[in-house]
Amino acid sequence: xxxxxxxxxxxxxxxxxxxxxxxxxxxxxxxxxxxxxxxxxxxxxxxxxxxxxxxxxxxxxxxxxxxxxxxxxxxxxxxxxxxxxxxxxxxxxxxxxxxxxxxxxxxxxxxxxxxxxxxxxxxxxxxxxxxxxxxxxxxxxxxxxxxxxxxxxxxxxxxxxxxxxxxxxxxxxxxxxxxxxxxxxxxxxxxxxxxxxxxxxxxxxxxxxxxxxxxxxxxxxxxxxxxxxxxxxxxxxxxxxxxxxxxxxxxxxxxxxxxxxxxxxxxxxxxxxxxxxxxxxxxxxxxxxxxxxxxxxxxxxxxxxxxxxxxxxxxxxxxxxxxxxxxxxxxxxxxxxxxxxxxxxxxxxxxxxxxxxxxxxxxxxxxxxxxxxxxxxxxxxxxxxxxxxxxxxxxxxxxxxxxxxxxxxxxxxxxxxxxxxxxxxxxxxxxxxxxxxxxxxxxxxxxxxxxxxxxxxxxxxxxxxxxxxxxxxxxxxxxxxxxxxxxxxxxxxxxxxxxxxxxxxxxxxxxxxxxxxxxxxxxxxxxxxxxxxxxxxxxxxxxxxxxxxxxxxxxxxxxxxxxxxxxxxxxxxxxxxxxxxxxxxxxxxxxxxxxxxxxxxxxxxxxxxxxxxxxxxxxxxxxxxxxxxxxxxxxxxxxxxxxxxxxxxxxxxxxxxxxxxxxxxxxxxxxxxxxxxxxxxxxxxxxxxxxxxxxxxxxxxxxxxxxxxxxxxxxxxxxxxxxxxxxxxxxxxxxxxxxxxxxxxxxxxxxxxxxxxxxxxxxxxxx
Length: 767
Ligand code: CDP
Ligand code: MG
Known about the structure:
It is built from 30 helices and 21 strands. The protein is an alpha/beta fold. An 8-stranded mixed β-sheet has the order 4-3-5-2-6-7-1-8, sandwiched between helices. A 6-stranded parallel β-sheet has the order 9-16-13-10-12-11, sandwiched between helices. The structure holds cytidine-5'-diphosphate and magnesium ion. Cytidine-5'-diphosphate (CDP) binds near residues 93, 119 and 170. Magnesium ion (MG) binds next to helix 7.
């Protein structure tokens, strides 16, 4: 018999009984009467508890702290409690001591690599130091007039949207102005800057776009590429462009900031640029592994949260998961359990999810100081690995996975998959527990997995993703010789050729590989080339209004319904109203048999508009108002841009605050409407012909047209188990879980594919 082990704090072992109940609670569904009664006559189910092996001998430095070290830590902790004002907090950060040296170094060297532990103040402080040193008046802090009379900007790029917005809001507080005033941010579909803005945080993708309108970045005196170690595709391309720029603009200053890894590599790439090291403090973190592999890490994480909560006095908890859906599920699960245990908990558990789509005010919650007699549980993705630092975390729970884009240049198949993270990531995650005192990290995987199943470092995105989007942008910047572009890590020639081929087949490049008029227009649109091609096609097919609606909805398609939208086999469709019956209703109205998920999304959008964008309507239909609101925001911006680019056809009506696609369709006769639907579908076929799949002979799965890879209709799709199944479909994306699933599918006619992509399918010659 396996002995149950809670290796958290032995002296709290008496709480085991309470813990035993917990493993049942976590499985409990709300409103599930049968279970509810069971919860109080619990039997401990060993299989459901999470067992950890003891802290690693060498890692378990917690217990090995000497008396001196403990005293030192106490001193630092008291010191930190003492500093209260913003000014004091700023001064307490490790970078502060190096302020003058840093400014000196920036003035002296055109390119400087700054390395420092996460939380040392690089992101929030360095741009402020440069501003205080007068970099807004001119490069190198000397007064220089700009042609347009404006001040210079200090830019800072972030790989993620959440980081850009959170940091801008934090630095605004520190500077004492509102976001968009002196400090602002710019992310896709959301620009919060003004003429007054001098410190500008932005996503790396947005700076790449700015390069297209201003290749000299003449607005900026200095640019900081932050989190360079993350090696996102956009950051890598930026590094190449900025390297060139800094040889053309000698007064321009470039900072590359990175958590410790890879700094030598950056230095070598930038002709041996100096590395400025900001020493940081970090406390020991003991590592705990599970003894057995965990089949369900969400469940294991929930149980572990309560194990910690009931056995440890203080210290907040940070949980690493792979995406918004998991974060929401776990948050709901934790809250439900808390409700059940309200009477038994000595201290309250505050659940704080964080992801890009969460409203700003809620995002800010994670940074709030935890009230006495409470404990904070932050649920995050790898955003919290290095980009965001949350004070007070003493426990980290690491699921060991990450969601990644994978692309094979051979098959041309791109899919999203949840894969084991790297050891470097796992170590970064663990390190988050040791910022303000000794901490603990609970890894929901075995030590063996860590050693054998995880890669040492993550693969840079540029080596594993579809490059067509950035290749198009580079082409439009006039960088045509991609094979000889100075990349930090060069993508394979196959991947580049594949991207060029795809752009050629979309009509963005001609036979000579030159950018076409269509390509130039596509590059202007802030979306993936395939979607950009749809928009252009919709322009000539007079249905831009509708395609803009569908595209805005596609981004949110996974979070529109609150609840499962697929029915289990044999489930009665007319039973209880639910997300599934509501989805069914929209599918019927949209005639999903013909129009698939795309036209279903349009139907949902139009109904939302008809009902005055009302939250009540959303609730009645099991639709998440927040997701719809985000879609509405994206739609507004995209529609404005399309109007600016003159993509709306003559027949199309004036923008009506998002209600235009609804008004137009309602004013049509049935015939007209059917013809319009066909044009919408053709627009998507024009962009997505490369994602076409044909029904297999057996009829229960599809094969990609190009390489005959088996792919399956996702259960959430309107086409799931449709009888008879359409012969040809195109899909919006592939998601790899147990199989390659096609998400957001639309039936297409073979004729359209032949018409839009004769060269594409001819050249493959079948196999
Ligand atoms: O960039 P780096 O990891 O070196 O540190 P930072 O992000 O500049 O964080 C410095 C300090 O500001 C940390 O103590 C953070 O907890 C704090 N911070 C915050 O309270 N709220 C934010 N939105 C961002 C940072
Ligand atoms: Mg940072």
